[in-house]
Specification:
The complex is a heterodimer of chains A (about 240) and B (about 425).
Chain A: H1 2-19, H2 23-34, E1 39-49, E2 52-63, E3 67-74, E4 82-86, E5 89-94, E6 99-103, H3 119-123, H4 128-131, E7 132-142, E8 145-154, E9 163-169, E10 175-181, E11 187-199, E12 202-212, E13 219-229, H5 241-244
Antiparallel strand pairs in A: 1-2, 1-13, 2-3, 3-4, 4-5, 5-6, 7-8, 8-9, 9-10, 10-11, 11-12, 12-13
Chain B: H1 2-11, H2 13-53, E1 56-60, H3 61-65, E2 76-77, H4 79-89, E3 93-108, E4 114-125, H5 134-137, H6 140-143, E5 144-147, E6 155-159, H7 160-166, E7 173-179, E8 185-196, H8 201-204, E9 207-211, H9 212-218, E10 224-225, E11 227-232, H10 239-253, E12 262-266, H11 273-309, H12 311-319, H13 324-360, E13 362-363, E14 378-379, H14 385-389, H15 392-406, H16 409-412, H17 418-423
Classes of the chains: A alpha+beta (about 240), B alpha+beta (about 425).
Chain lengths: ~240, ~425
């Protein structure tokens, strides 16, 4: 009997371990689903401030963490405002002043147009696996979807969020909920996906609520109107000349 | 009697010179310190009131709760209507709307791209309307270093230090990058027409001043104002009247269920200024008390030395039948004369030094490089009517206490031993 028990226990343990993939493996699949060579996205931001709500519409071309271009389409006061991010540098163009202005790097962690998103949140596609160590800390159901709960801890100091708790859809490998923390452990930002769409073979959060926990207000709804991946983006888009066009 | 004592003091200098000099020194220091503290306190109140707090300030309740962050997204809307009502209800006050804001000031090169850029603290004030008192409140005309003040829309003045640091010339375009009242990005072109220096490090580091209508337009704050400042007509701050005014205003306008309804605060309510002013008063009291105590000890000691020197004289006076109480009283009367004389001299010298410090001041700008307080970089004393009499408090009390303590020895002298003591 004893001879049978030991292999049986080993088998149960091995099967159990096989059912829980490693944090790195999950994060790799999240990156696979999320990161492309580039993408173009048209979206609305519904910003719920203390004074009321307002809507912005914009289109962005994003290529990895280093290159991104955004043009605001609505409302009229913001329409024509453009932003170009090349590595750590940010330029902005406003039609009312007809000026291209370089904004210093620390602005990248500031709010975009009074929303709950920072420039980094909005203009960068970063591989999470390159930035964070991942550990599976549990399993939960969120939005009626079974999820892995991952604890991410930054590998380097130069990241906007030192740690994150993310709820990853077990089947679609899309992060449905996130809590983002500072090094001190203070909760800085939360995100929750309210609806998803499938674009090609990728799952994308169609309506995502961002909440900057350091700000008052009811958060910002990020609504994707369209998103296309791996397209041919003309090179001039990521140049300062495009800002005045 | 007084004449007799006075003659004695004048003729016997060893009885009066040292105590008079001691009182003179103590009173002089008291007067100078008092005037110095008054000068600093007044300067702080004036600078804070004119640039920051007013004698009273009206904000939206939400803005007031976070006022140190200058949250223009919580600014009060409907400022012109409220100003009309304030002028009608409280005509004895000067009311002026202001918008404070932070941002970046960007200077273009020939291609229109960034040549220089720096963070700036901005102030939108009423510069153009005929009834505006901002020029005198902010001492703008005397603060211009180069160029002139804005006279037309789209013009600004900036701190001279800031202009020097960024190499900005008059007539250049400067683009303000900031946030609109609704959180959007604000970008607006201005022309730099002058540079200013207020002599307040916190402001001279990097500030810009524009007409409030320009700022409202740039920051999308139509008919909105971050703050409405109120000043008493004679430009002096009256804490009691400010409290009454605040209570009357808040009773009429403040709504507990509306975070954007206006609330009024007094100068003392803002930024811990009330506590600071109380602290200065306490400090002033402590300084004077310390002088009274120290001078009393010195004069007590001087009295003891004097008593020893006048041991024989006191003995003779007792032996010829002068009562101890009379002797004690006459010595106290002598000391009061010395105190009075020393206080007059000390006050004259103290006032002269204080007046010099009031006119010339003491430049402390090197110690205030990173200061954020609204305090002038030249500290000055302030001679007030109270400084004429403040020195008499320690001057008279100390001489009285010193003699009263040392004179107790008179009562310990035994008449029966006097002859024997005098033989010695």
């Amino acid at each position: 009997m004893k001879r049978l028990m030991i292999p049986l226990m080993l088998m149960i343990t091995t099967v159990g371990m096989a059912q829980v993939p490693s944090g790195e493996a999950i994060l790799e699949k999240v990156d696979e689903n999320q990161i492309a060579r580039n993408r173009k996205i048209i979206y609305e931001m519904l910003i719920h401030g203390r004074r009321g709500s307002r809507t912005l519409k914009a289109q962005s071309w994003i290529e990895g963490a280093d290159r991104s271009f955004t043009e605001y389409l609505e409302p009229p006061r913001e329409s024509g405002t453009k932003m170009l991010k090349l590595q750590e540098q940010l330029w902005t163009y406003s039609p009312s002043t007809d000026r291209i202005i370089k904004i210093s790097g620390h602005m990248l962690r500031q709010s975009v147009m009074g929303s709950d998103l920072s420039y980094e949140d909005m203009m960068e596609d970063r591989h999470l696996l390159r930035l964070y160590e991942a550990e599976v800390v549990g399993e939960e159901t969120f939005m009626e979807r079974p999820c892995w709960v991952l604890k991410l801890t930054a590998k380097e100091t130069d990241v906007a969020y030192h740690s994150r708790d993310i709820w990853v859809d077990k089947e679609r490998y899309l992060a449905l909920k996130e809590n983002r923390y500072a090094k001190s452990g203070k909760l800085l930002k939360t995100t929750e996906v309210k609806s998803v769409i499938k674009e090609g073979d990728r799952w994308v959060g169609e309506r995502v609520v961002f909440k900057d926990e350091l700000k008052s207000g009811d958060g910002t709804e990020f609504l994707i109107e369209s998103v296309t991946y791996d397209i041919d983006i003309p090179e001039y888009i990521f140049s300062k000349a495009a800002l005045r066009k | 009697m007084i004449r007799f004592l006075l003659k004695g003091l004048i003729r016997d200098r060893s009885r009066s010179l040292f105590p008079v000099l001691t009182v003179l020194a103590g009173v002089m220091l008291t007067v100078v310190l008092y005037c110095w503290i008054q000068g600093i306190t007044e300067d702080m109140i004036k600078s804070s009131a004119n640039f920051e707090t007013g004698h009273v300030k009206i904000m939206s309740q939400a803005y007031a709760a976070e006022s140190d962050q200058i949250p223009n997204d919580l600014a009060f809307v409907g400022a012109s209507e409220l100003l009309k009502e304030l002028n009608a209800r409280f005509p004895h006050m000067i009311w002026t709307p202001r918008i404070k804001f932070g941002g970046l000031l960007d200077i273009p090169d020939e291609q229109g791209e960034t040549r220089a850029q720096g963070p700036v603290m901005g102030l939108g004030v009423d510069l153009f309307s005929s009834q505006s008192r901002e020029h005198s409140l902010l001492n703008l005309n005397n603060s211009v270093v180069r160029g002139r003040l804005p006279e037309r829309p789209g013009e600004i003045v900036i701190s001279d230090d800031f202009a020097g640091r960024l190499k900005i010339e008059l007539g250049e375009t400067a683009t303000l990058i900031s946030s609109t009242m609704y959180g959007g990005m604000a970008a607006h072109n201005f022309i730099v027409v002058g540079t200013i220096r207020f002599g307040i490090v916190a402001l001279d580091r990097g500030s810009m001043i524009a007409d409030i209508s320009d700022v409202q337009y740039a920051l999308d704050m139509e008919d909105a104002s971050g703050e409405i400042l109120g000043f008493f007509n004679d430009s002096f701050y009256y804490p009691g009247r400010a409290v009454d005014l605040t209570a009357a205003f808040n009773n009429r306008f403040q709504k507990s269920d509306d975070a954007f309804s206006p609330i009024m605060q007094t100068l003392s309510d803002q930024g811990g200024l009330g506590e600071l002013l109380d602290l200065m008063d306490t400090f002033s009291g402590i300084v004077i008390t310390i002088f009274v105590v120290v001078m009393s000890i010195v004069l007590w000691n001087a009295g003891l030395i004097g008593s020893m020197r006048r041991y024989g004289e006191i003995g003779v006076r007792l032996a010829i039948g002068e009562r101890k109480s009379h002797l004690y009283r006459s010595m106290i009367a002598e000391s009061l004369m010395i105190g009075c004389f020393g206080s007059i001299l000390g006050t004259i010298v103290g006032l002269a030094i204080s007046y010099y410090l009031q006119v010339k001041g003491l430049d402390i700008s090197s110690m205030l490089r990173n200061a954020s307080m609204m305090i002038s970089d030249v500290m000055r004393a302030r001679v007030t009517p109270t400084s004429l009499i403040i020195g008499f408090v320690p001057g008279l009390i100390a001489t009285f206490l010193g003699t009263a303590i040392s004179g107790i020895g008179i009562y310990k002298r035994q008449t029966s031993h006097l002859m024997k003591e005098l033989e010695v």
